[in-house]
Design goal:
Largest sheet: 5 strands, parallel
InterPro entries: nSTAND1 (IPR049052), TIR_dom (IPR000157)
Protein name: TIR domain-containing protein
CATH architecture of one domain: 3-Layer(aba) Sandwich
GO biological process, one term: signal transduction
CATH topology of one domain: Rossmann fold
Distance between the termini: 59 Å
Helix content: 25-40%
Number of helices: 32
Pfam families: nSTAND1, TIR_2
Shape: globular
Strand order of the largest sheet: 2-1-3-4-5
Strand content: 25-35%
Organism: Denitromonas iodatirespirans
Length: about 1250
């Protein structure tokens, strides 16, 4: 695995030095180099330089910076440095002439070539090699190992033949480097679907590379299995293991590893298949493992980091887990392989092993990788081809297509061959089917996943068959670590879950047993909860669930295990006691009537059961997609299907409520397309117009009607355009020509050439422009010139500080204040540093920043009033309204600082840190909060004055860049990214208020319009989508605390009659949260139950933090709240209608419940509502398709509708933009 490219950052004026460096690098063995000219000259027109730099830097392993006066003065070179630092790349400054190094390089050892160039280059080569960038750094292949391992993961010994995930390997190494360099989170979780190659990436891609880097000690990889603490002890160094065994507290691991800190700077614990803590590990052992790991990761003394792999469908379960929810981590999402990567997986190991692949074989294999299981199927097929046909040094196309049955047939053919060789009897086949049932579980989305079992639990008659499957690498044998009460035990599991889907016979077996597997998977957690309650009779099975359990006990009792058997037996005894307390009901029909009606009843019941099972399946899929998979679109579609199939009115209503809570009432109102993908877009926040330009053409569109209002074509590409108060347009092209157009009067050229920049005042009534040696102001909308001021040097920018006063500045830090209409500046002063940005404030104040300096100016007095320094380079700053504070940030490092505007003293003790770089910083109008977004996929809300985020949302897992905007009120955040689309969030709680807003193509941008009532999104294919908010349908909103009093938020003791009923049902110690006629809501600790007429008790409704209060709502709904969370439940079937919702009204003083929930303290209040979407005259699925422009197929795949398909959906009135030609267009071509 050779090292990837070295990026050479340099100024175009240093090309000769860069070319010399490249030749020297090649002579040292570095063959993969990125060498380009300064982006100002070298990137073709029309290419986005920042995107280009980011892509090139992301794919490199290290950056050599040629440091000269030219490069240190270049903004483009500075961007390369900051991008590289943000990406965790190694920087190697190489000083080639006199210069002052940028701050971003000061913490890195520079090599100075000026005294002795050859000695300097020798130091550079040594430094690069010590940092792990050794050109000879390739791995040797062990010829005793297969070049294609098959279904089992690649191991560290397979590093020489591991290909296809180079970009992800580099991303993982870079992220670990960032975590170590900048501090913060110490747990990195690689998240990916089953079969995506997570384990192989970490084992063969990352671990071998880390072991070659100085300063890293790698422990593991380990798998949690049943006893994760014992598995952890096995991978610890000898000394740490001895210390670990002698400690019993939560800090046992931290104290054990603290002794290693003096020997190595950092230790990395690798945990593979982290989901086993939820699916396989004993509950107590899993909790102990989490406790130990959490304490160790938080302890700076032991300098421990953790890298883990996790199936993506268990991510949400981990985030909401009571213990794991307290462990901060960073997520790295592993996407699907591309066709190019599949070709590398096939061809490159063959090159290493000296195997010749027949022409056409690689292409055929790649073409066959179009399934979800492509990677494991390909891995197995390649292993079989090598094992059976590769010994002669060639593998042919015919051997693939004819001999092993192609990609889809290889696994099934091999499994069938194992059976054919051993010729099992029918009894052995039945035992084999039973054994595979024990090795499978069903995940929340209904997919088969593997489960490790003990060898002694496999029927002895099929042990020879199991050994044959192990030899064929279809099963994997392992060992469970010994514990205090259990000896070491041999285990067995399938090599990969693809076996469940690719072997036809096994898939048929599992499908036949699906009902049993689903039931066992559903009831096992209930049994575990009962065992740990301790044995709370309220958790026992009753009625239909108990009858179903007894049926499976009769049919499959030997497969239930002791825990389930005890749970069912206790449930039967409780049911018998209940029946004895009830009076026998006399039969009122004759035996003959029963006999005649029997057949009809049976048929009706069969239909009802089938329908109910389907509805329950959609419910389970929806809850899993929402809470475990983080897929709100899929969840909404499942809820819609459940609503359409529900025969119960209450169940349909609740399914619609669940779907509506996800959609938030945001509906697609119009679609249209621009002629070309725009270079930039400007949207009127208060109005409903969109301004866009591409090349020399600029146009204005009405977002309500989806009509073009006006357009203008310049003689040169457009550089900037702004909207005026009257929705006119001022546009400037690259030649400096400025035009006013789009309304009355007719289009008018304000300046023929030379304008470098322009701005409009807050009222939209004056235009300010600057050019070489002057600033000028025009009145709007007339275009009348109001004055021009000549300046002794070219201004770098200018801004209005009120309607008649302008401040301009030059790049060297000189400032001028000018009263419009006069011929001389009223004041001039110097900041004595190169200005990088200026923000006007109130009362004539300005905020500017240089490299690491912040300055507060009093423009009316013409002076710098305060100056202070930041430890980091400042990339942006904002005033905090009403707080006399200044917020600054460093983009690359993700650091923010709050300062007192008066004197620059820190308002918060240390820098505020986010996990990735910063793309947006937004301050709310009241100055109480600010929002950050950027790399990594998260969006955070911070309360001013606090050192940690108040709320965080994951907008897109592993997204390279997330941008965001605030509405005018500051209560709503619109976030977007290229891959995840756009989504609306509540600012204070980061509760999602819409489904993801998607296009066919990658999203390019999003914005509010119409005073926040509308949202517009646009994609890279020039498609535009206009969405309308319905605030009364949004899940939550902040509000003012009410004047009156509400109910006390806590429970009350039951009266004597209700207590007797509860005691009779075994619900001892339950308190009352609400009573309505014959219904009561009762609970204790984290559990609540709805108690209905005839003592019908609902399934447990849970709130992990403990139920602080609750209320019964119409349609059988129940709302529960704690000190920090809220959740809505279906009180009949026990399903959560919403995800767990974070509240910002903590420890509420009062609560009011009607159809919605209002909770408050003295300082703030929040309303939660769950309206039913209006689906009158249509199905829930049609409603969802119209509002989201998405549909779900029979396999559960989401499709984004094209404009034609969306317009064709049935509706009463065609939406805007659906007619091919719109008569009466107000288009003005200017």
């Amino acid at each position: 695995m050779p090292v990837s490219g070295i990026f050479i950052s340099h100024s175009s004026r240093d090309n000769a030095a860069a070319e010399d460096l490249a030749e020297r690098l090649r002579a040292q063995g570095y063959q993969s180099l990125f060498l380009d000219f300064d982006p100002a000259d070298g990137i073709p027109a029309g290419r986005h330089w920042e995107r280009e730099i980011y892509a090139r830097l992301r794919s490199c392993s290290g950056v050599v910076v040629l440091c000269s006066a030219h490069s240190m003065a270049s903004d483009w070179c500075f961007a390369e440095m900051t991008h590289a630092r943000a990406l965790g790349k190694q920087l190697f400054p190489l000083i080639i002439d006199d210069c002052e190094l940028r701050a971003v390089l000061l913490d890195t050892q520079a090599v100075d070539l000026r005294p002795d160039a050859e000695a300097g280059y020798a130091r550079l080569w040594a430094g690069m090699r010590s940092a792990g960038l050794d050109p000879t750094d390739s791995f040797d292949w062990d010829i005793r190992r297969p070049p294609y391992p098959g279904l089992t993961p690649f191991e560290a010994d397979d590093a020489a033949v591991y290909f296809g995930r180079e970009d992800d390997r580099r991303r993982c190494l870079d992220t670990l480097a960032q975590m170590r360099r900048y501090g913060g989170d110490r747990l990195l979780i690689v998240v990916g679907a089953s079969g995506s190659g997570k384990s192989s990436l970490v084992r063969a891609g990352v671990i071998p590379k880390l072991r070659q880097m100085p300063g890293w000690q790698v422990l593991g990889p380990m798998r949690p299995l049943r006893q994760p603490v014992e598995a952890l002890a096995k991978v610890l160094p000898d000394g740490a293991r001895e210390r670990f065994g002698g400690e019993a507290g939560a800090r046992a691991l931290a104290m054990a590893m603290a002794g290693e800190a003096d020997e190595r700077p950092a230790t990395l614990l690798v945990v593979d298949q982290l989901e086993e803590l939820v699916t396989t590990s004993e509950v107590g052992a899993a909790a102990r493992f989490v406790e130990l790991l959490q304490a160790a990761l938080a302890d700076a003394a032991c300098d421990l980091y953790c890298l883990a792999t996790l199936r993506s469908d268990y991510l949400a379960a981990l985030q909401t887990h009571s213990a794991w929810g307290q462990v901060p981590f960073r997520e790295m999402s592993l996407g699907p392989m591309t066709l190019r990567h599949f070709a590398e997986i096939i061809a490159k190991p063959a090159e290493v092993a000296g195997i010749e692949l027949e022409p056409g074989l690689v292409e055929t294999l790649v073409q066959d990788t179009g399934t979800a299981d492509a990677l494991p199927l390909l891995a197995f097929a390649l292993n079989r081809l090598w094992r059976d046909f590769g010994q002669d040094g060639t593998i042919t196309l015919a051997e693939y297509t004819d001999r092993i049955g192609g990609l889809a047939g290889a696994i099934g053919q091999e499994a069938d061959a194992v059976l054919a060789a051993l010729k099992p009897t029918s009894a052995q086949l039945a035992d084999l089917q039973r054994a595979f049932r024990q090795m499978v579980r069903v995940d929340p989305e209904g997919r088969y996943t593997r489960r490790s079992v003990h060898w002694q639990d496999i029927p002895e008659a099929v042990h020879p068959l199991m050994e044959a499957f192990v030899k064929a690498r279809l099963l994997v044998a392992g060992h469970d670590a010994a514990s205090d009460d259990q000896p070491e035990a041999r285990t067995l599991e399938v090599a990969h879950e693809a076996l469940f889907r690719a072997w036809g016979r096994l898939k048929r077996w599992l499908d036949e047993d699906r009902a049993f597997l689903l039931w066992r998977q559903h009831v096992r957690p209930e049994a575990q909860a009962w065992q740990g309650a301790p044995r709370d009779p309220g958790l026992l099975l009753r009625g239909g669930p108990l009858a179903e359990a007894r049926r499976w006990q009769r049919e499959r009792g030997d497969e239930l295990g002791d825990e389930l058997q005890a749970f069912i037996a206790a449930s039967r005894k409780a049911a018998q006691r209940t029946r004895l307390r009830r009076r026998l009901i006399e039969a009122g029909v004759t035996l003959g009537l029963v006999a005649m009606a029997g057949l009809g009843v049976a048929l009706w019941q069969q239909h009802q059961e089938t329908q109910a099972q389907l509805v329950n399946s959609y419910w389970s899929g929806a809850v899993s997609a929402r809470d475990a998979g983080g897929d709100a679109l899929k969840a909404a579609h499942y809820f819609a299907r459940a609503a359409d199939l529900s025969e119960s009115a209450d169940q349909r209503t609740n399914a619609l409520v669940a779907a509506g809570a996800l959609s938030g009432g945001l509906e697609l109102a119009a679609m249209f397309s621009l002629p070309h993908s725009p270079d930039a877009v400007v949207v009127s926040p208060a109005g409903a117009v969109l301004l866009s330009w591409a090349g020399p053409a600029v146009r204005l569109d009405d977002l309500r009607s989806a009509r073009m209002l006006a357009s203008k074509t310049h003689d040169a590409p457009v550089a900037q355009a702004v909207l005026t108060a009257d929705q006119q347009v001022v546009s400037r092209d690259m030649a400096g020509s400025v035009w006013l157009w789009g309304g009355t009067p007719a289009a008018r050229e304000l300046a023929p050439h030379g304008v470098a920049g322009m701005a409009v005042d807050d009222a939209g009534r004056h235009l300010l422009a600057w050019s070489a040696g002057a600033v000028q102001v025009w009145a709007l909308p007339t275009g009348e010139s109001l004055g021009r001021l000549a300046l002794p040097q070219a201004p770098d920018g200018a801004r209005f500080i009120d309607g008649q006063t302008v401040v301009a500045w030059a790049a060297d830090g000189r400032f001028w204040r000018w009263r419009v209409g006069t011929v001389e500046p009223q004041a001039t002063w110097a900041s004595n540093c190169a200005v990088r940005g200026v923000v006007p404030g109130e009362g004539g104040e300005l905020l500017s920043w240089c490299d690491t300096a912040l300055l507060r100016h009093e423009a009316l007095a013409g002076r710098v009033a305060a100056r202070w320094a930041s430890p980091e380079t400042i990339d942006g700053a904002r005033w905090v309204p009403g707080r006399a504070l200044v917020l600054s940030w460093n983009t690359a490092r993700g650091r923010l600082r709050l300062w007192r505007a008066e004197d620059g003293a820190p308002s918060v003790g240390d820098a505020l840190a986010r996990a990735g770089s910063i793309a947006r910083v937004l301050v709310t109008p009241d100055g109480s909060r600010f929002v950050t977004s950027g790399a990594g996929g998260d969006v955070e809300t911070w309360e001013v004055g606090e050192e940690a985020p108040a709320a965080r949302a994951t907008h897109g897992r592993g997204e390279a860049l997330v941008k965001a905007a605030l509405d005018a009120s500051g209560t709503r955040v619109l976030a977007w990214s290229a891959a995840a689309g756009a989504r609306l969030w509540d600012t204070d709680t980061m509760t999602p208020l819409s489904l993801p807003l998607r296009h066919d193509a990658r999203l390019a941008g999003a914005a509010f319009f119409d005073a926040g009532e509308g949202v517009v999104t646009w994609a890279e294919d020039a498609s535009m989508r206009v969405w309308r908010r319905h605030p009364d349908r949004e899940l939550t909103t902040p509000t003012a605390p009410p004047a009156g009093n509400g109910r006390a938020p806590g429970p009350t003791p039951p009266d004597a009659a209700l207590k007797a009923r509860l005691d009779a049902l075994g619900l001892h110690g339950y308190q009352v949260f609400d009573r309505r006629e014959n219904d009561a809501l009762v609970g204790t600790g984290p559990l609540a139950r709805r108690l209905g007429p005839d003592d019908v008790v609902s399934a447990p409704l849970t709130l992990a933090e403990g139920v602080g209060g609750g209320a019964l709502l119409p349609d059988g709904q129940v709302v529960l709240w704690g000190n920090t969370t809220v959740q809505l439940w279906d009180g009949t079937n026990g399903q959560p209608l919403t995800a767990l919702l974070r509240a910002d009204v903590l420890y509420p003083d009062g609560v009011r419940v009607d159809t919605d929930l209002l909770s408050w303290t003295d300082e703030r209040a929040r309303r939660w509502r769950w309206p039913v979407p209006d689906t009158a005259g249509t199905s829930a699925q049609q409603w969802l398709a119209r509002s989201s422009a998405t549909q779900m197929d029979a396999q559960g795949a989401i499709t984004v509708l094209t404009r034609a398909r969306w317009c064709a959906l049935p509706r009463a009135t065609p939406p805007a933009g659906c007619a091919d030609a719109v008569p009466g267009s107000a288009h003005l071509d200017q």
